[in-house]
Write a structure and sequence with these properties.
By secondary structure, the protein is α+β, with helices and mostly antiparallel strands. The chain has five helices and ten strands; from the N terminus they run βββααββββαβββαα.
């Protein structure tokens, strides 16, 4: 999709969001486990383990591009506590979103060392939009540093190509 940028006035093509269809913990289940212990929907996932239940919601992270007018969006998953998950499920359609939650990143983002369990602040959005996440700034990880420092357009295009299998 092409559009005229409000900032520079030039025509650009929209980048696709880098999308993970499930949390990694769901992806690594066997086919039988996916049928018997897991439930996945477009924005929610639960996995009933023998001794605990894992709860996940789908979220968005927006990565700043330092030398381009468009940012790069990720559709990721985070795990939430039982209390936070239940509260989010009950209130996510409200016009006034809840103030926020603490979660752990639940996807392995290509091009980085282990990104599982990076600490995230989860900010619900109004209008049925997915929550926005921000990593905790004091979590020492290259993914967190890139989030706060931004990445180049060339790096963003490399990530898109890698996610699309090019």
């Amino acid at each position: 999709m092409k559009y005229i940028c409000e900032n520079c006035g030039n025509e650009h093509e929209s980048w696709p969001a880098l999308t993970f269809n499930a949390p990694l913990y769901y992806d690594i289940l066997s086919s039988d486990e996916k049928e018997t212990i897991a439930i996945i929907e477009s924005d929610f996932c639960t996995i009933e383990n023998e001794d605990h239940t894992d709860r996940f919601i789908r979220v968005t992270l927006v990565q700043t591009i330092t030398d381009h007018c468009e940012d790069l969006a990720y559709d990721l998953w985070v795990s939430l506590s039982e209390k936070s998950f239940n509260n989010y499920v009950e209130t996510h359609k409200n016009k006034t979103p809840e103030p926020g939650y603490f979660g752990f990143l639940s996807n392995q983002v290509p091009g980085y060392p282990d990104t599982l369990n990076i600490h995230m602040d989860v900010y619900p959005q109004s209008g049925h939009q997915r929550p926005i996440i921000e990593p905790h700034q004091n979590f020492d990880h290259p993914f967190v540093r890139d989030y706060y420092n931004g990445i180049s357009k060339e790096e963003a295009e490399r990530r898109i190509k890698a996610m699309m299998g090019e």
